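Note to self: keep these together.
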Amino acid sequence: MDTRKLEYFVKIVDAGSITKAAAALHVAQPALSQQVSALEKDLKQRLLIRSKQGVEPTAAGNTLYRHAQSILRLVEQARQDVATSGAAPSGRVSIAIAPYSMASSLAPQIVQEVAKRYPDIVLHLTEIFGGVLSESIKNGKLDMALIYEPGEIRGVRFTTMIVEDLHLVTHPDVQVGNGQTVTLEEASTLGLFLPERIHTLRQIVEKGFHDKELSLKLVSEVESVPSLIRLIGENLGAAILPKSAADALFPDQNFKVLKIVEPALQSKIALCTAEHEPLSEAASAVLILMREMIKSRLLTTYGGAPK
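Structure:
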């Protein structure tokens, strides 16, 4: 269906007269009448009732009028979007980032790089747990989240970006493991600082202990990175984190970071977006930038992608 015919039809209905519409459109009246006749032939419906007072839409005409208005608005929006697509991305982009993760340490770099590359983008950053974000993603309050993957949540999509083995982080004086690795049974002899149960990382650790029928010695639930640094530094307990997170969160600490084995525990950092809503151009630009940063950080940490 030719959108020009729809534009003419809407103008006729708005004007209430083919003559008035022809004058407004700078189109000859016979040509305009032919366009309406072509629409009626195409749709096999009478669309207008003509009288000496002008024209009135039929029931079918009213239906077409409503749809035509929507179609023409979409066409105009498409024109505007295409016209501005070559410009620098702009607008607000909201991102949630998992606490206790390498991703959270990227926040300053994300802000700096976005400001440098896309000065018209305004970032909104927050920390959030996987189990409580689905509604925020679905209703558009958040564009995306980079979090520990919690498993399937209806209405949102998770794209795994990092799969990492978990490591035990202790004070350097703690005698445990062989200097490179530590078994889960050995780790169970230490008191642990973990996030609260809603955090996916906590759930992974608890499941690992439960599956091996080991007791978990929880010293305290700690969400603050500065507090965790002080607590481990005072040798009051240990933490369990991916190596990249430990390296990023404790760059100036001489903590032991030992890979957990027998069994290995793994966590996933995933990008969470709405299942049926595409990202805006600005959000897509930020996403590409974040992927670059994560890749660079992993190359520094592992010399390549983590196993």
